[in-house]
Design a protein that fits this description.
CATH topology of the largest domain: Pseudouridine synthase
Number of strands: 15
Order of helices and strands: EHHEEEEEHEHEEEEEEHHEEH
Helix content: 10-25%
Radius of gyration: 22 Å
Largest sheet: 9 strands, mixed
Structural class: alpha+beta
CATH superfamily of the largest domain: Pseudouridine synthase
Strand content: 25-35%
Distance between the termini: 54 Å
Shape: globular
CATH class of the largest domain: Alpha Beta
Number of domains: 3
Length: 329
């Protein structure tokens, strides 16, 4: 049964952030665990459900935290359907749907790609990635769809990891994404070379930082199509090729360029008002998409055992294609 912990708010704590007070008063629970509990609806303020970790405690008198039973640290097999593009004894290439988290973490302990892979592959997955990330050599955001390769043994894991760590600079690694962005870049193609690091304002976000800080991040982009009035297009379709692979790289880089992704609530919230300028069918399609318009469409790498170059392509998923069709209309 879940345990309920009640904390009485001291007068000097009023005005402080909810997550900060809980972290100080409940040292046995990590900040990330507490944040996940708040976001998942396990925290009540004077009896009212709260899901904002940054809420200021003004006139509150008590906070109740429902702590669920501990989850087995080792992910379990779950019968989750997989779209398998290719598989052999060394690796498996998956076409990941939007909404599927790659590996277990705070707030997503079950229902992940790893749970599905354990069910499909059994004990053959590489253990190098650790208990929570067996076989995982690279990731896609939860709401990004498309191609992902997973290692099924340690030798394949080492070979694939080396290619991703090298970013294809001395080898033929390829990663291309289709992205729908607001507006139209002023050139047909370009390169964004801007380091990324955790945002100092929101730790769940990434941000462009000055040279010498953060980690190197390079994105090459090419304009494929634009939509709307030719004199003032509302949106465009880009192909983005990664030279590095950082968390949220394309999403942050395109926002930095002034063209955030359609549907990106994290990095494109300032462009929300632009939605009303879309044709009605496109407004409906974007609402139905309910995520950033980003799809990992191409993936190429050298097979870690045979040395053969392998290249895979994934068609746009129906929700993305529906939005694209509506924009064209």
């Amino acid at each position: 049964m879940p345990e309920t912990i009640t904390v009485d708010i001291a007068p000097e704590e009023r005005g402080e952030r909810l997550d900060r007070v809980l972290a100080q008063r409940l040292p046995d629970l990590s900040r990330s665990r507490l944040k996940a509990l708040i976001l998942d609806g396990h925290v009540r303020l004077d009896g009212a459900l709260i899901n904002d970790p940054g809420l200021k405690l003004k006139n509150a008198t008590s906070v109740s935290v429902d702590v669920p039973d501990a989850i087995d640290p080792e992910p379990k097999a779950e019968n989750i359907p997989l779209s398998i593009i290719y598989e052999d004894e060394d690796l498996i290439v998956i076409d990941k749907p939007a909404g599927l988290v790659v590996h277990p973490g705070a707030g997503n302990e079950t229902g992940t790609l790893v749970n599905a892979l354990i069910a499909h592959c059994g004990d053959t997955l590489s253990g190098i990635g650790g208990v929570k990330r067996p076989g995982i050599v690279h990731r896609l955001d939860k709401d990004t769809s498309g191609l992902l390769v997973v290692a099924k043994n340690d030798a394949a894991h080492q070979g694939l990891s080396a290619q991703f760590a090298d970013h294809g600079r001395t080898g033929p690694l390829e990663r291309a994404y289709r992205a729908l962005v607001w507006g139209v870049p002023d050139r047909a193609s370009g390169t964004i070379d801007a380091n990324l690091d955790r945002s100092t304002h929101a730790r769940d976000k990434m941000a462009v930082v000055r040279e010498g800080k953060g980690r190197e991040a390079i994105t090459h982009w090419q304009r494929e199509e634009s939509f709307g009035d030719p004199k003032a297009p509302i949106a465009s379709l880009l192909t983005c090729r990664l030279e590095t692979g950082r968390t949220h790289q394309i999403r942050v880089h395109m926002t930095h360029l002034g063209h955030p992704l359609l549907g990106d609530a994290t990095y494109g919230s300032g462009y929300k008002t632009k939605e009303k300028h879309l044709p009605p069918a496109a407004q409906t399609a974007l609402a139905d998409l309910g995520r950033q318009a980003l799809h990992a469409a191409e993936l190429g790498f050298v097979h870690p055992r045979t040395g053969e170059f392998m290249h895979f392509e994934s068609e746009l998923p129906p929700d993305f294609e529906h939005l694209l069709t509506a924009l064209r209309g």
